[in-house]
Amino acid sequence: MTFRQALALPKNNMVLSGILLMLLGDFMFALNDAMGKWLVESFSVGQVLFIRSIGAFIILGPMIYRQGLGPLTNVERPGLQVLRVVLATADTAFFYAAVAYLPLADVMTFYMAGPIYIAALSHFFLGEKVGWRRWLAIVLGFCGVVIALRPSTASLSWPSLFAVVGSMSFAISLILSRKLRATNDTTLVTWQTVGALIMGGVLAASDWQPASAIDWSAMLLLGVVACAAHLLITRALKLAPASLLAPLQYTLLIWAVVMGIAFFGDYPDAQILIGSAIIVIAGLFIFHRQKVVDKAEPETVPTSVH
């Protein structure tokens, strides 16, 4: 279905299509995360990142050809564009570094705090007004992160810190995406992918492992799946209100638990479940207040491409 055909649909059908595309996009992101975890158990983060980025161009290539090279070189605010690419690359690299050692559900718990970080940072970097109710939810959400993090000398680990730093990089990159909203999606994703390609090549240079045809195919497919997920969510946001779609991102946590158990035998412990529940409740309340007070915009929905 083309976007023009979608516009001809009755409003209710458009909204339903948006919801279904959002759910499918979230599933694709969860599948991407599970595939990434499987691959980084055998290959370095850099190698996976490098080949994955090449795979992403299977989808990006025709899109770049259709729009031409002009939009890629003539971008607004080049300094912020570079900073966004650096942070988006850090987000992906730290995510893979974390899932190499932690269960999917644990890592996704930290990433589900993204909307909480965004709400807090928007006040300082975008000048957006955040009322006391949302500040209370932000504090509650941070408490959930602390519970999940297990901040003791005996249990605090580097992989957990990778997940926290990655999720914060993710949140700040989304803040920058709001500032760069005049830049089209293809351009943003292309430069983000180029950044990951360069970083992956640098990291993989000293730790390149031989791989089978199946492994190469899986790493290329990883890029295709991630790009497809991003495009599905972008299209969903054109068909249904962001305030309706935003809470659906928490299905990622459900899929992370299911895939973690099914593919890796990882069962989340009580502390992760309690922390994630607090984060989800705080995040849903923030989305609700954004809808009531700020008329939430599409940029409030995280569309990271891990």
TrEMBL record:
Bilayer-crossing regions: 12-31, 43-61, 82-102, 108-126, 135-152, 158-176, 188-206, 218-237, 244-264, 270-287
Pfam family, one: EamA
The protein, known as: S-adenosylmethionine uptake transporter
Location of the EamA domain: 17-149, 160-286
Keywords: Membrane, Transmembrane, Transmembrane helix
SUPFAM superfamilies hit by this protein: Multidrug resistance efflux transporter EmrE
